[in-house]
What we know:
alpha+beta; Ribonuclease Rh, Chain A
Amino acid sequence: MAFKKSIPSVGMLALYAMQFAPSVLADVEFCPNDTPLSCSSPSIEPSCCFNSPGGAFLLTQFWDHDPSIGPSDSWTIHGLWPDNCDGSYEEFCDESREYSNITAIIEESGRTELLSYMNKYWKDNSGDDESFWEHEWNKHGTCINTIEPACYTDYTAQDEVVDYLQKAVDLFKTLDSYKALAAAGITPSNSKTYGLSEIHDALSNIHEGFAPYVACDGDYLSEAWYFYYVRGNLITGQYEPSEKLTESNCPETGIKYAPKSGGNNSTSPPTTACPAPARR
Ligand SMILES: *[C@@H]1O[C@H](CO)[C@@H](O)[C@H](O)[C@H]1NC(C)=O
Ligand SMILES: *[C@@H]1O[C@H](CO)[C@@H](O)[C@H](O)[C@H]1NC(C)=O
Ligand SMILES: *[C@@H]1O[C@H](CO)[C@@H](O)[C@H](O)[C@H]1NC(C)=O
């Protein structure tokens, strides 16, 4: 438990609770307010209060129209990924914490709301949500150093899995891409097309002015990745929206935003499970 800091005062704890209170307070390391922002310096050692080497976090979303996945008026969750501050990333970092029972883990934790939200908004495009969640945790979640078991003050096996999924959901709820686009007049259509800069502008409105990376599948809008740096621990830290580290593969103009649950006249091929380059 080399990461433990001295026990904070009651006043500090109260301040901490006011400023950083997540939806469910996890028993993770307390981090002081002057904790440096992730990716701010390569010389800072990884700790439970400093995400490294994966210090950039991406909350990633799909717009899956063919097949149509999830509610027709919402994007869906892809994942929450650590990146090495430069667009590269580590994956599958701890085989001993890879799981094939994510649903059971959430059920055992008692977070039924989390599970029902995931059943609606964290959808696999081939219908196997459990496998998709396993893939996201095993590949990306295990690489986040600030949620390793040693960072918990009162650890029960798989606590970090549920905290990680909850964090992804909590971030997703603050990033309503559908609504942001609609507010700028960008709505799903079989006939209209849109420009990349207007999509960037519309989505930057919900991310403190920083446009997410948007991906296209051919001409079809298909993903959005919102970047953050984090001050402190992944679960209890402060998220600061940041510049994307990857350039869009979409055309500058003529982007299609296809309606879901229609698929009428769509010529885009069905997207495949994780191995495809953009689907990670
Ligand atoms: C999930 O799987 C892990 C590893 O096999 C096991 O230790 C744990 O008890 C399982 N959890 C539930 C709720 O089944
Ligand atoms: C798709 O086309 C069929 C037949 O033309 C029509 O009945 C249906 O309403 C259309 N669906 C959407 C979402 O446009
Ligand atoms: C779909 O294609 C048919 C014929 O190709 C056309 O008549 C129809 O208007 C199209 N529907 C939409 C929603 O674009």
